[in-house]
Amino acid sequence: MKAVVLAAGEGTRMRPLTSAIPKVMLPIANKPMLEHIVDAATEAGIEGFVFITGYHEETIREHFGSGEKWGVTIDHVHQNEQLGTANAIGCAKGHVEGSFIVLNGDVLLSSSHISKMIEREENAVITVKRVENPSDFGVIETEGNRVSKIIEKPENPPTDLANAGIYLFRESIFELIEKTPLSPRGEYEITDTLQMLIDSSDNVGYEVLEEEWIDIGRPWDLLDANKVLLEGWKPEIAGLVEPNATLIGDVSVGEGTLIRNGAYIIGPVVIGKDCDIGPNCFIRPSTTIGNEVHIGNAVEVKNSIIMDGTKIGHLTYIGDSIIGRKCNFGAGTKVANLRHDGKNIKVSIKGKRTDSGRRKLGVIMGDDVHTGINSSINVGTVMESGSFTGPGEVVR
Question: How many CB atoms sit inside 10 A of residue 159's CB?
Answer without folding.
Answer: 15
